[in-house]
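User: Good morning. I'm curious how FE2/S2 (inorganic) cluster would be positioned relative to this chain. Could you predict the structure with it bound?
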Amino acid sequence: MTDPRHPLDPVLMRVSLEVNGDLHVLEVDTRVTLLDALRETLHLTGTKKGCDHGQCGACTVLVNGVRINSCLSLAVMHEGDTVTTIEGLGSPGALHPMQAAFLHRDGFQCGYCTPGQICSAIAVLDEIRAGVPSHASGDLTGAFTPDTAEIKERMSGNICRCGAYSNIADAIADVLEAKA
Ligand code: FES
Ligand code: FES
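Assistant: Good morning! Here's the predicted structure, ligand included:
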C-alpha cells in the first residue's frame, strides 16, 4: 500500500522538556526549532528572534547549563533536556545578579538583544570558571586572565544593534569580580 502522505506533510513528534523548572510535554512538528517552540508553543517570548540563522545571538538560551543559539536547534533534539530562558533567571523583585548588573551599568538601549546577552554572559562566566580558553586567551593550555578582551571575545556571538557593548562588558566584569 502506498503512503498517502505528501512528502511535505508535517511529522509530529512528542518531546519532554524542563523549561525554567517546569516539565512540558509538547507535540511538535519535527521541523520546529527550539526557539519557535519556546516562543510560539510555550509563549516564552523573552527569548528573541533576530536573524533566525545563527548570526546574532538574540535567541541564546541555556540548555543543560550550556549556551546555544536556539534558532539553530530543533525542539525534538532536546528530549529530557533542561532549558533556561531569561524568564527563568529572575523576576522583577528578585533579579539574577547578571540582570541587576545590566540594569546598573545601563547595558542596553532598545533591549531586543538583552535576553540573549544575559543568558550568554551567565554561560561565559561558567566557561571562565571552568578554565575553558577562548581565542583571546594568551595560553590555551594554562591559566588566563579573564580581562575585558576575554569577555568581549566570548560575547562576540551576541550582536547589539544599539552598540551597548562597552556597558555590557562592564556589567559582565562586575559580576565576574563580585564572584571572584
Ligand atoms: Fe538565533 Fe540570530 S536568531 S542567532
Ligand atoms: Fe538594542 Fe542591543 S540594546 S540591540
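The helical segments are 34-41, 97-105, 114-129, 148-154, 165-178. The domain at 97-179 is CATH 1.10.150.120 (DNA polymerase; domain 1).
Let me know if you'd like a different ligand tried.
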